[in-house]
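Thread title: Can someone regenerate the structure for this chain?

I was given the following input by a collaborator and told the matching structure tokens would be attached. They weren't. Posting the sequence so someone can regenerate them.
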Amino acid sequence: MLAVRSIAVAVAALASALVLASPASAIVGGRTATAQDNPSQVALVLKGERLPQNPPFCGGTLVAPTVVVTAMHCLEVFGDSGPFRGNHTGKVEVIGGAISLADPGMQRVRVARLVKHPGYRRGRNLHDILVVHLAVPLRIPPMALASPQDTALEAAGSTVSVTGWGLRGASASSGQPRTMKFADVRLRSGASCRRVWGPDIDPTAQLCAGVASGRPDTCQGDSGGGLWSGRFPQQRLLGVVSF
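Best answer:
Regenerated them for you:
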């Protein structure tokens, strides 16, 4: 799995730009998540689509009551030609407060604005970050962003965590679970990441996590979800699941 790093810097930069200016991967392996594993997890769904018949196309993390961080490539669901043309704000809804996709207590809210990272590079998935501003607050706890002083949390060999409703295997026939999955994975060094993914990987902007066997790991539908360190309520968001 590869994730975008330096989330705090990216979110701060996008928020500032907004003020001044006025699609990856279910958990393969792992276990069923509990309500305390990642209460900040959200699901991105197409407007009007019903759950669980139509599963989420991406995940995300609530970082403030009306702010979600997800992956820029999640907008590929709209099939744009070129660098994501068009305004898709009214086509996306965000669901929070659900472990099961059939949970009657989930909250579904409209999107007010999508803020795309200006440095996103589609071919390499660099800066694969999308900030989603919600029309109303979600009633779930936001996850704290890792700060520049938290670099020790990104050390190779460190245990980090992921959650999501993505595919349970590499084949589409594996299906997506109705209940969120959770997995712990280990961060890999930048050199190890480059050996696997090639020279286009930028260790200053991307993090690698996983094991050689490929289980547990993220899969199709987990994109945009968080990669974090620690246990609730001391979690720190390190990255966004990219590919």
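The CA atoms of residues 17 and 138 lie 23 Å apart.
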